[in-house]
Fold this sequence. Notes:
The protein is built from 3 helices and 15 strands. It has 206 residues and is mainly beta. Strands 2-3-13-10-15-8-7 form a 7-stranded antiparallel β-sheet. Strands 9-14-11-12 form a 4-stranded antiparallel β-sheet. A hairpin with a 4-residue loop joins strand 2 (29-32) and strand 3. The chain is globular. 2-oxoglutaric acid (AKG) is lined by residues 112, 114, 123, 126, 128, 141, 150, 183, 185, 197, 199.
Amino acid sequence: xxxxxxxxxxxxxxxxxxxxxxxxxxxxxxxxxxxxxxxxxxxxxxxxxxxxxxxxxxxxxxxxxxxxxxxxxxxxxxxxxxxxxxxxxxxxxxxxxxxxxxxxxxxxxxxxxxxxxxxxxxxxxxxxxxxxxxxxxxxxxxxxxxxxxxxxxxxxxxxxxxxxxxxxxxxxxxxxxxxxxxxxxxxxxxxxxxxxxxxxxxxxxx
Length: 206
Ligand SMILES: O=C(O)CCC(=O)C(=O)O
């Protein structure tokens, strides 16, 4: 298979088959944002993440969405895809949803995916609503591919906290993160390979 990124000699993950490493939860770090909200960073939950990225890239779920910007329609700076029925998703995605469900006691039943083709793609400030209407939610986001900056700021503005999840890392937004905080993946100046994010949600958290 042709890989979408430029492998380096040091890229141990390059040819590994994707696998969930449950031991990674033991190395998780917690970052308290305020009294009610916090982020858990689980490094290396998925080994072989490049291989999964390459596999997902071949699927026909990807869409180029468009949106209004001022008075013109523009392409969103990323591709997006969604599984609302995990029975038709690749088996590993359903397995990831089940693993996260067990870990966080939330029955994840949907996966929203972003494909940042390179450093010029990104996503602006957002909170995951209306998918998460409840005041609190546990929203896991698994990164595949190149490391990207993932910023969190108070809703409506304020200083950002910067995370840099690498491929295979899990970022979990918890507490009131979808109410009181916003997150984004900014475009970057430095050339970078592709990244995908897998965002797990549950209708029971809505
Ligand atoms: O790509 C990411 O890391 C997060 C994107 C996200 O939160 C979203 O699309 O709702």
